[in-house]
Amino acid sequence: MSGKDTYKDLLKTGNLKSTKHRNALLETLEQSGLPLTAEELFLRLKEKNVSISLSTVYRILETLVDKGFVIRSQLATGNKALYELSHKDHHHHLHCVRCRQIFPVDGCPLEDYEQLLADRFGFTVTGHNLEVFGYCEKCKDHKQDG
Amino acid sequence: MSGKDTYKDLLKTGNLKSTKHRNALLETLEQSGLPLTAEELFLRLKEKNVSISLSTVYRILETLVDKGFVIRSQLATGNKALYELSHKDHHHHLHCVRCRQIFPVDGCPLEDYEQLLADRFGFTVTGHNLEVFGYCEKCKDHKQDG
DNA sequence: CTCCAAAATAAGAATCATTCGCATTTGCAT
DNA sequence: ATGCAAATGCGAATGATTCTTATTTTGGAG
Q: pLDDT tens digits for A39-79?
């Protein structure tokens, strides 16, 4: 499951060398079903005894985003960027404003909308970003607490 | 048009004092149909001969966001936050990845979706953020240029 | 109108995420 | 096995945003 070359072929399609750091980082992203910050990735890699520097984490992420293997997003409220694999099915996340948990939701309500934008404004959509905020099932009763 | 107390009543509803800085900042946001960064606001205020410090711009924006008068958003690709008035009709923006222009689009495709999230996941939506990326009409022919 | 306490602002230091520079190491084609 | 380009480590640099403290302004009470 946790081979050191698991992502060799993927990396090769981007003309990227297969290094232990890149493989471990991709594996960590894959194991986490949810988007992670650079620092979270850094810490999880350390837990796996992968010796890596934080700037390398950032550099690898930048490279993978450029190649389209990873998606970077940034919450309106947060200062840190989030990263997740892009080879999965298109989906979005629900952000609970109370417990801060993130819930993935398969599917996307925007396909028709993108066509409408093309028709009405001549805008050629290449991607989008959707964050939904609110209260998750467990927290909805505490909506007043602040 | 450009009275110094134009937003006095609005500010009062938030228990905020009516200061020249807050009025001028709100006026500047209103005059710009598009979201602005803190620094852009700072510069536009200087052009209007409003003497203000950048940290005050940030502090006022934070206050207005807390009160719900201003909406803060952050692009997945960008490092700077964007601010716009929230008393207008709900809308979204198209971001041209080539010329960097921002195009507002009235309306929102997500109303039904939010109800679906409530029904299926018990998630109580309080807000959302949608960025759409692509090529505007003028730039779409240069999609290959990079 | 004057005075006061609370709120707001200026100025710049501090913080935090992210990027950069350069010396060293590693992957991989030959 | 060898060499060179690509990748990494480490710490310094950057840039947006926040914080600290002294000073000024606002809005209400008298």
A: 999 999 999 999 999 999 999 999 999 999 999 999 888 88
Cβ-based contacts of B137 with chain A (< 8 Å): 121-123
Q: What is the pLDDT of residue B144?
A: 61
Which residues does residue A127 pair with via DSSP β-bridges, in sequence order?
Answer: B133
Structurally, what CATH architecture does the domain formed by A1-86 represent?
A: Orthogonal Bundle (1.10)
The domain made up of B1-87 is a member of CATH 1.10.10.10: yes
| Cα–Cα dist A56/A60, whole Å | 6
- In chain A, which residues fall in CATH 1.10.10.10? 1-86
Q: Which residue of B has its CA nearest to A81?
A: B76
Q: Where in chain B is the domain with CATH 3.30.1490.190?
A: 89-146
Q: Outline where chain A has alpha helix (H).
A: 8-13, 20-31, 38-47, 54-66, 111-121
- Determine contact, residues A23/A4, Cβ cutoff 8 Å: yes
B21 three-state secondary structure: helix
What would the pLDDT profile of A17-26 be if each residue is shown by its tens digit? Answer: 999 999 999 9
Q: Compare CB distances from B136 to A72, A123, A129 and report the shortest one's residue.
A: A123
For residue B91, give the amino acid letter: H
Q: Confidence band (pLDDT; 50, 70, 90) for B4?
A: low
B54 touches strand D (CB under 7 A): yes
Q: Which residue has the tokens 């990227």?
A: A16
At the topology level, CATH places domain A89-146 in Dna Ligase; domain 1 (3.30.1490)
